[in-house]
Inverse folding.
């Protein structure tokens, strides 16, 4: 069932095309200052490799001489998918609602990582088939019990898409109000690797066989079936060319929320650390909707999920890690946060040659 509803009550009071508003550019002056400091630190130039690049990038994005990743905000968006009826997941759809409880109670991987990082974890329920109801620590922004089966009709109505985009923007508003230095978006939804792969295929004009992967653990036959389901959906929605329409036809509530969050973060000058395959599909949709948001994205890791490499290549992204991860939830991005913290600690805390009395080259 895909009952159309109005935007959730906590949606930002903005116009329907808020996502197209200009994103500010990173501060080139602070980048230059950070590069000058890196040249003065007690090390051979470039010897800290990507850690130097990260520190300079964060200084530019945060417009500061002392970049940081201490205050991290993680929003996990949960939603169900109508395409699950096509048998594209190894897990039953009930898992989505059950995992909402697990996130809130602290038992999920991203919950553990958030605690270890001292990060704020926000769980957002956008609509599950087995609604867990009111749960402490979960923000209800329910749009519908699930999207529609996109093999039969568009996954979302225009109103539902706007509600999902706005739900992501609201999470960014919460992060900004909490003075977060970094935003991570996570997702949960049985069937969402199918949705992300279908969206990626449409945005990249690629065949489903190239992007459909194991998801929750499908075998070869399951992956082949998944690709066939995606091809059916692509054929049905072939007349839609714009990223907005493709997101409505093939996306999920949580994928659209991530898309909205990435754009809103860029508009708010808040750097984002993009997670794996599903999050990167949302990032590509965000960049197609508002190209200026790309400058505000860092990419955490290369997922083991087939198709992630094509998305990263389309975004000219260099991920920080390659650990064979494919869990989602924002977990891979959380694992990468200590690298950002190390980069900032080195940049801010190392002595210069003059301070240490060390001879330069």
């Amino acid at each position: 069932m895909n009952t159309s509803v109005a935007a959730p009550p906590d949606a930002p009071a903005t116009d329907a095309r808020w996502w197209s508003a200009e994103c500010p550019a990173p501060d080139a002056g602070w980048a230059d200052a950070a590069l000058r400091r890196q040249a003065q630190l007690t090390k051979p130039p470039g010897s800290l490799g990507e850690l130097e690049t990260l520190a300079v990038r964060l200084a530019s994005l945060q417009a500061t001489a002392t970049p940081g990743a201490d205050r991290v905000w993680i929003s996990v968006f949960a939603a169900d998918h109508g395409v699950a009826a096509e048998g594209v997941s190894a897990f039953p759809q009930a898992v989505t609602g059950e995992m909402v409880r697990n996130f809130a109670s602290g038992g999920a991987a991203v919950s553990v990582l958030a605690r270890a990082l001292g990060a704020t974890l926000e769980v957002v329920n956008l609509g599950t088939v087995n609604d867990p109801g009111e749960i402490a620590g979960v923000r209800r922004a329910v749009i519908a019990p699930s999207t529609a089966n996109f093999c039969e009709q568009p996954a979302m109505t225009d109103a539902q898409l706007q509600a999902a985009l706005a739900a992501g923007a609201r999470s960014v508003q919460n992060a900004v109000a909490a003075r977060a230095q970094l935003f991570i978006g996570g997702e949960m939804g049985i069937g969402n690797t199918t949705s992300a792969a279908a969206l990626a295929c449409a945005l990249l004009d690629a065949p489903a066989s190239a992007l459909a992967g194991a998801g929750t653990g499908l075998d070869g036959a399951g992956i082949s079936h998944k690709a066939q389901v995606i091809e059916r959906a692509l054929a049905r929605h072939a007349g839609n060319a714009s990223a907005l329409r493709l997101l409505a036809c093939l996306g999920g509530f949580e994928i659209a929320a991530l898309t909205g969050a990435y754009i809103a973060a860029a508009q708010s000058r808040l750097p984002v650390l993009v997670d794996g395959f599903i999050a990167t599909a949302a990032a590509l949709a965000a960049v197609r909707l508002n190209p200026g948001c790309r400058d505000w994205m860092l990419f955490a890791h290369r997922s083991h999920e087939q198709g992630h490499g094509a998305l990263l290549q389309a975004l000219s992204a260099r991920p920080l890690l390659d650990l064979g991860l494919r869990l989602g939830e924002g977990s891979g991005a959380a694992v990468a946060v200590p690298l950002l913290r190390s980069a900032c600690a080195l940049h801010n805390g190392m002595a210069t040659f003059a301070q240490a009395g060390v001879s330069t080259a």
Q: What stands out?
A: The domain at 68-340 is CATH 3.40.50.10210 (Rossmann fold). The first strand starts at residue 72 and ends at 79. The CA atoms of residues 82 and 149 lie 4 Å apart.
